[in-house]
Structures are given as C-alpha cells and as structure tokens.
Amino acid sequence: MVKISTRRAFRTAGSRICAWLCLVTIGEGSSSKNEREQRNSTFPFQDRLLAEATSATLEQDVITHRDVFCLIANPWSGLAAQLERELAWGLQDYLPETVALRRASEHAFQQLQEVYQLGDNPTVLLLRSGLNYTYQGELRSEHVIRMIQYVAATRPEDLPVRNLKSMEELLRLVKSADVSVVAFDRCSNLAGEQLTSSDCAQARLSFDLAARQFALSPTIRFAEVLDELTIAQLGVPLDREHTVMAFRAGRAPSVCPECTVPMLRKWLEAEASPLVTRAQVNVFPGVPLSGLLGEAAQQRRPVAVLAVHRIVPRGMMDADGELVDDAQDHDVNEKALRGTASLVNLERKRGRATLMHEQRPVSAEAQQTSSEATGTADAVHSPIHDVAVEVPGARTRSMAYFYIDLDREVVPGSFASKLGVTALPSFSIWNTSSNDVFVLPGFQPISDRIEEFVEEFWANRLTPWVPSEAEPHTRPESKLRATTAAELEQMLVKCPLNNSTVAGGGAEEHRSRDHGSGTCVPTW
C-alpha cells in the first residue's frame, strides 16, 4: 500500500492553484489546454494586458513599445497575485498603445532578478530608451495605475530628471508633486561649460542614480536647475557646487547633507515618508482656485476649505533647514492637514466626499480647450490634467474638499476671501445651494473638531452667522458662524484693496482701517 503524504498532496494542489493566481506562472507544463482556456476566461483581460515575458521577449518589446512595464515577483507571492488581478481589471479601459505590460515567466524569474539586481519582493520595472527604472512606491493597484498613466503621458526626456529653465517651471513642479527633489547645479554654467572638479561630476552621477531608483514613485518628482537667479531667490546654500533640496507640502525645504549615493538614498527615503497628499485634500495648483470653486458651485456641491500655511517662512529655520522654537505652529498646520486627509478618506467610504477632479491624461486638443475656457495658460500645468467629473442633480450628498495656502492664495477680493478665509488658519464649509458660509473658528484644536463640524453640517444643525457692527474685527469663539457669499461680495465691493496694500501693511494694516467710514472691509 502506497502512502501519500498529506503535506505533499497539499503542496501539489497549491502549485496547481498558483499556476493561474500568482504573478509568475508556475506549473505551466502540467496544465492542459482546457485548464488554460478556463483560466483565461476567468480573467478576460489578463492575457491582453499581462503577457508573459522572458529576457528575449523583453528586448523585442523595448523595440516595439516606448514603455515596457514588467511585473517581477517570487512565485509564491500572494501580494503579487492580488496586484495582478487588480491591474488586469483596473487597466481594461485604459492602456496606451505605447505601453506594454508584462509579467515574468517562471524560467525567466531568476535571470531577470540577476540582470536588474532585484530582491524577492514583488517589483514593477520600467524599461524605457535602454534604461531601467524600479518602482519604489506602495504596491497598490491604484498607485501603479496612476504611475503608468503618468509615465505614458510624459515625454521621455522628462524621465527621470526634468530640466527646469525658469522660476515658473520650478513653482509648477513644486505644486504638482507631493515631494519635489531639485538639484541646483553649479557644476556648469548656462552654456554647458564645465567649471569645477570631478567631485561635482560624482555628485551629479549620484543624483542621476537616485533619480532612476525613485523615478517611478507616485509621490516624487525630480528636476535640475541651472539658473543662478533662481538659486539666489530660493536661498540655496552658495558654498556648494551641487545642492539637492526637497520641497514638500506642510514642511520647510530640506537640504541633503551629503550627495553620495548611500546618503542621498537614505535622505530621499526619509523625505518620501507618508504624508498627506494633494489628491486626498483635493488640491490642484496650477488651476485658479476661483475656477475650481466655481465648478463646484455649478454642480451644487458643498465645498469644504481648509486654510493653513503650507510653507514655513525661511526666517523660521536655522542654517541646516531645521525648524526653530518659534515655528511651533508648523506642527499644528501639519496636524490639521493629516486630520483633514483622514476625514476625507472616511467620508469617501461613506459616499459623502468625492474628489471634484481626477487626474487623467488628455489630448492636446482637450488641453487647449480647457486653457481657453479658463482664460489662463496655467490651467494646463502638466500632461496629466485635472478633468472635472460631472455630478448630476441640483443637490448631491458629496462634498468637495479644498486646501488653501495662506502664504500664496489669499488676497482681498479673491474667491478665498469671499469664503471668509483670511490670514488666520480656518476650516470653512460653503453650502452652494443656499450660499451660506460656515466657518469653524479657533485653529489650535481644529483637527479634533473638523469631523464633528462636518457631521453638524450634514445634519443641518449649523446656523448662518452674520458679523455684527460691535465686533467687526474679531473672530468670535462660538462653535460656528457663517455669512452669505452675497453679503461678502457686497462688502468687498465697498472696500477694494490691491495687493500692494497687503504687501506693505499686511493683516495688521488691514484690520486697522475704519469700518464705519465705508472704505474698509473688516478682516475677521
């Protein structure tokens, strides 16, 4: 009598199951034709999107496709199997002809690991123009799909390092990414003539290698600046030939202490640590804020606005770029950002928060049409453009969330000021159906009170607040207050203030004007 080990039988059965579940195909030789057809019918888009790849077929794919994404993972990786299924369904409606999506076959797995020096974890590899880049982001299908869309809509010369030629391009980059890593290079002048030693060349090589490693992260963008005027304006240290800085929402600019490959990689990993992303708070710089809020008003969608200081003033940092003691409000700003992002994620699960814009690659004709409609060329700030999502009905149970940078976007007469946003951090809700604006005062505990404030709005328990003549210059510490957009509009017409007034006297001068004379608008 022949005894069959239970463990061996389980292992055999597991191999057959993983033959169609796992990212890397195993046991293919023992699969019959009917089994393969049944497997393919289970995931009808899988073979079209995720064809098997060997080292030989990858070389051919590089010739016939501009971008080749190859998924490489250990045969027993359940994470890779889940990722494969989600990608198969997530990309069925979008896969550019210039993109080829492949998975490593079993017999090519070890070879590809050795060639590209990969570990045992699931890996997304991009092959473009003879170079290879490894995806360093979180292995979630939505992140990988967003990365594929971004790469497909980006010019080859912009990966991994984009060359910036003006301050406008630099600001557009900083606003369009969660983390912007910029190398300020004085190794050569604007004419491209080498000025310094081999140490500078080594620093540039380190930056290029790091950029190739992190280029496919969904949150990091790399760029290089040669403009001395731009360097001076940003306060980049002048004692170095090659300086690498990171710009991130909610934090002060950070300078890499040393540009060697190990130090640069460690520094980038720290800078790319999870932080609230603009997509979570629905921030899309490059498009005028008034245009975004105007679209929300047309859709009759309630609008929530979080106003904080995104960038800490340079005077509040020491020589190493660290925050000093009098920058304590920075932590409050970041806490409010994190709290709002968590609330947005929770509200989206409840079906009460839907991003008003979503990032999609669009054609040149669509970009031109959008630019003409908004009246500004800044409306199209990248190949991935913000496309409005139509919301039918006069009233919707979803709220659009916006983030306002108090250091840049709030000036008297702007759309933000009409929502009650001033130089003080705040959280506001604009009911576009009734034109009521509700403002949660008192910024210190704001992150703990936002969720309760939103719940009261949905329950219609908020009472509009109208500023009184007796207290024209103060923010009352009541639980809620509001004024109508029409009243704000009328007050702003009575007291037009230009940007020079704000720049010269700031908020203090604004508050000091006489409200009774009819020539001033009170700042709350």
UniProtKB/TrEMBL annotation:
Transmembrane segments: none annotated. Residues 354-378, 503-524 are annotated as: Disordered. The lineage of its organism: Eukaryota, Viridiplantae, Chlorophyta, Pyramimonadophyceae, Pyramimonadales. Keywords: Signal. Residues 365-374 have a biased composition (Polar residues). Residues 1-29 form the signal peptide. This is Thioredoxin domain-containing protein. Residues 507-516 have a biased composition (Basic and acidic residues). It comes from Cymbomonas tetramitiformis. It comes from the Eukaryota.
